[in-house]
Amino acid sequence: MANTPTPPDHPDIAPVTIEEEMRRSYLDYAMSVIVSRALPDVRDGLKPVHRRILYAMKVGGYDHNRPYRKSARIVGDVMGQYHPHGDAAIYDAMVRMAQSFSMRLPLVDGQGNFGSMDGDPPAAMRYTEARLARVASDALLEDIDRDTVDFQDNYDETTREPTVLPARFPNILVNGAGGIAVGMATNIPPHNLGEVLDACCAYVDDPDLDVNQFMEIVPGPDFPTGGVVVGHKGVRDAYHTGRGSVLVRARTHFEDAGSDRTAIVVTELPYQVNKARLVERIAELVRDKGVEGITDLRDESDREGLRIVIVCHKSAQPDVVLNQLFKHTPLQTTFGVNMLALTGGRPEMLSLKDVIAAFIRFREEVITRRTAYLLARARERAHTLVGLAIAVANLDPVIRTIRNAPNPETAKAELMAGPWPAGDVAELIRVIDEPGGQVDADGRYQLSPEQAKAILDLRLHRLTGLEREKIDGELRDIVAKIQEYLDILGSRAKLLEVLRGELVELRQRYGGERRTAIEMAEAEHDDEALIPREEMVVTVSHRGYVKRVPLSSYRAQNRGGKGRSGMATREEDFVDQVFVCDTHTPVLFFSSAGMVYKLKVHRLPTGTPASRGKHFVNLLPLEDGETISTCTPLPEDESAWDEMYVMLATARGNVRRNRLSDFVNVKANGKIAMKLDSGDDLVSARVCDAESDILLATAGGKALRFCVSDVRVFKGRDSTGVRGIRLAPEDTVISMSVLRHVEVSQSEREAYLRHVAAHGRGASDRADARDITPQRVAELEANEELILSVSDNGLGKLTSAYEYRITNRGGQGITSMDLGRSGEQRYVVAAFPASLRDQVMVVTDGGQLIRCPVDGIRIAGRNTRGVRLLRVQQGERVVSVARLAEDDIEEAASGDEAEQASQSGGDGAES
């Protein structure tokens, strides 16, 4: 403190910390932006710049019934007198008020180039002309000269400007508003004037109406460009809380384009969408194959209206193409409602009812002030007319007094000196009820200086009989108006009646039809609804190419056949994974980097059985060197995900269990799934429940079965898990299967297997009760699963799951398949459960594929080699086997007899 400099001893200098100064200066700046620039006033719905433009045009005489004036002159008036900012900002604000595609009810009538929906800028202000729109003169600025609103000094105190305009309709709802302040923003959509005025009338009739009742009158925004609001949730949230997200779509219909083609015709766009950029975006998607099925794109818009024509390929489904355009282009946008406005000089988030209530309160104040102003002016005129009426009633004495006076001052004093008989005017004077201007008990009235001056200024022609009647008639009319004004000021019911009448008159004059349609159906599932359900074979190659092919494209063959081409592969590439699922099925894609991505099957590229597909790098945001290692189809119903789990297994034998709900929200850029040790790979991820068993199979012909509950549920996704199976050197895990858990003792398992070996399945009545009862045989047979094991040389077999006894995780496992003792090294490529009613697809690294029924494969013990499923070509190996469940199998056409497999050679068993 000793080193702190002492401030100079001067009365105008005071010490202040920089923190206090920065805080005060920033708050002053923030409040200035909020109140004086960025946010609209809830009463007239205008920001200061818009209010000043309209008022300057009113003062300058640029009314709707006057000639257009140069925009530069208007901008100069605004900038010179009211708005000390750049001319470009003022002109931009004025241009927007003149654009019919920006304002639901334009407030400026522009002549010239004021921009377009294509984003074309307006012409310079020296080239355009403007004047007030009629609605601005009639409904926003009317009565502004009748003391209806407060005025304040302008920026240099040379003139006065209104703090708010006496708006006759809720402009903040009709034309909307948008602005960004410091720490807050507003975004209010436009609405239909007629609906808003009807809601105001309803509030006047019953202020206790709730927001839901107001929504029956104002169902949603009404954008100047039309379009379709889809769903009510966003609108309901916005009207109840002030915040909401409204989904807006273009208005479209289908037309016949000839040659069996259909055209999608766009006639209305969502609010604030740039038409030229929209057409460019659609063209980019067609070029990059982001949206397929479009053959032509034309913008046929003209002075008659908007028209964009999108011609679909004759094989494309127009509904699906349109839905993809909604998803990937601004044909569908979201309007984020944020109903923030200034109320009493403070920013406040408002509901629909709050806005209407604030406007009605403001109109009550305006009408009250206007009525008081008119009453004062009427009383002033009535005061003068009373003097003239008194003079006419006492014409001869008044003329005599004036004629005998030596000068005007004396005449004025003598007129004011003595009271004059009021006569028939006395009753009117009592109605006027002017302070200090009463009739005394004798029926006489004292003239005021103003009245005496008016009598002296009276022209002689006003003393004729006709003119005397006019004075009397005008006085009686003024008295009637005064009585009406007094009634309005004395009765709120009368005031509300006047207010309501003005609203009804305005609705009849300017109310128009709604442009934006409101669709009842929510759009969250529209994308799915337009995608036809179809069984698909999803094929993934070793080098990362994926495609989906309709299951009906593959026909069934007998085992041992030659097969058909399943995918066009390049050198060193081969089919790695094949699975069958629905087009609506969500699929998790687990990568070698331990990331997980999620896509619906219909988002995968379509192909033919012989096509290669599209690489994952074109579908998912993969890093350099990152590949997809396993794909897992998921249940469509997410409500059951909390009770289900995902079991993950790595090539080195580690496993980990997570709740399936951990993978509900997978963003487009992926999500961490599992931490992997260096050199390890994720080989499988399967959905399971807590009562299931896990079967790990290795390439070396080993298998280990343990309960899911042996692996704890991990809360995080960044761990390596726990050991599932202890591997021999050079051995790796090649598959993980989920099996039903069946409680069976060692003796029961052995007895059941002996019974099956002796009598086959379906012969429970022949069971020997000394070893196992027929009832227990039937029960075990009903819950039995068969494990299909396939080796790389095309041999396969079925083995009862009961032969894989349940042990603790972490062991070495037991033999699952005999790989032979030949000099050539063999390995297991697949091991998973299969039903006798299923079919399997066996794929080689050369791209050959065969589909054959499971019931043609021999059921054998664990330590056997099996039968030949596919005749493998020289130099090829089986690399992938996929199960086609009974529900997935569709009967295909028999096709070419030569391609049908009567090639049954090689079906002999090899023990």
Automatic annotation (TrEMBL):
<keyword id="KW-0799">Topoisomerase</keyword>
<dbReference type="GO" id="GO:0009330">
    <property type="term" value="C:DNA topoisomerase type II (double strand cut, ATP-hydrolyzing) complex"/>
</dbReference>
<dbReference type="GO" id="GO:0006261">
    <property type="term" value="P:DNA-templated DNA replication"/>
</dbReference>
<dbReference type="InterPro" id="IPR035516">
    <property type="entry name" value="Gyrase/topoIV_suA_C"/>
</dbReference>
<keyword id="KW-0238">DNA-binding</keyword>
<comment type="similarity">
    <text>Belongs to the type II topoisomerase GyrA/ParC subunit family.</text>
</comment>
<keyword id="KW-0963">Cytoplasm</keyword>
<dbReference type="GO" id="GO:0005524">
    <property type="term" value="F:ATP binding"/>
</dbReference>
<dbReference type="Pfam" id="PF00521">
    <property type="entry name" value="DNA_topoisoIV"/>
</dbReference>
<protein>
    <recommendedName>
        <fullName>DNA gyrase subunit A</fullName>
        <ecNumber>5.6.2.2</ecNumber>
    </recommendedName>
</protein>
<keyword id="KW-0547">Nucleotide-binding</keyword>
<feature type="region of interest" description="Disordered">
    <location>
        <begin position="889"/>
        <end position="911"/>
    </location>
</feature>
<feature type="compositionally biased region" description="Acidic residues">
    <location>
        <begin position="889"/>
        <end position="899"/>
    </location>
</feature>
<comment type="subunit">
    <text>Heterotetramer, composed of two GyrA and two GyrB chains. In the heterotetramer, GyrA contains the active site tyrosine that forms a transient covalent intermediate with DNA, while GyrB binds cofactors and catalyzes ATP hydrolysis.</text>
</comment>
<dbReference type="InterPro" id="IPR013760">
    <property type="entry name" value="Topo_IIA-like_dom_sf"/>
</dbReference>
<dbReference type="GO" id="GO:0005694">
    <property type="term" value="C:chromosome"/>
</dbReference>
<dbReference type="GO" id="GO:0005737">
    <property type="term" value="C:cytoplasm"/>
</dbReference>
<dbReference type="InterPro" id="IPR002205">
    <property type="entry name" value="Topo_IIA_dom_A"/>
</dbReference>
<dbReference type="InterPro" id="IPR013758">
    <property type="entry name" value="Topo_IIA_A/C_ab"/>
</dbReference>
<feature type="short sequence motif" description="GyrA-box">
    <location>
        <begin position="557"/>
        <end position="563"/>
    </location>
</feature>
<dbReference type="InterPro" id="IPR006691">
    <property type="entry name" value="GyrA/parC_rep"/>
</dbReference>
<dbReference type="GO" id="GO:0006265">
    <property type="term" value="P:DNA topological change"/>
</dbReference>
<keyword id="KW-0067">ATP-binding</keyword>
<keyword id="KW-0413">Isomerase</keyword>
<dbReference type="InterPro" id="IPR013757">
    <property type="entry name" value="Topo_IIA_A_a_sf"/>
</dbReference>
<dbReference type="GO" id="GO:0003677">
    <property type="term" value="F:DNA binding"/>
</dbReference>
<dbReference type="InterPro" id="IPR005743">
    <property type="entry name" value="GyrA"/>
</dbReference>
<feature type="active site" description="O-(5'-phospho-DNA)-tyrosine intermediate">
    <location>
        <position position="127"/>
    </location>
</feature>
<feature type="domain" description="Topo IIA-type catalytic">
    <location>
        <begin position="39"/>
        <end position="536"/>
    </location>
</feature>
<dbReference type="GO" id="GO:0034335">
    <property type="term" value="F:DNA negative supercoiling activity"/>
</dbReference>
<dbReference type="Pfam" id="PF03989">
    <property type="entry name" value="DNA_gyraseA_C"/>
</dbReference>
<comment type="function">
    <text>A type II topoisomerase that negatively supercoils closed circular double-stranded (ds) DNA in an ATP-dependent manner to modulate DNA topology and maintain chromosomes in an underwound state. Negative supercoiling favors strand separation, and DNA replication, transcription, recombination and repair, all of which involve strand separation. Also able to catalyze the interconversion of other topological isomers of dsDNA rings, including catenanes and knotted rings. Type II topoisomerases break and join 2 DNA strands simultaneously in an ATP-dependent manner.</text>
</comment>
<dbReference type="InterPro" id="IPR050220">
    <property type="entry name" value="Type_II_DNA_Topoisomerases"/>
</dbReference>
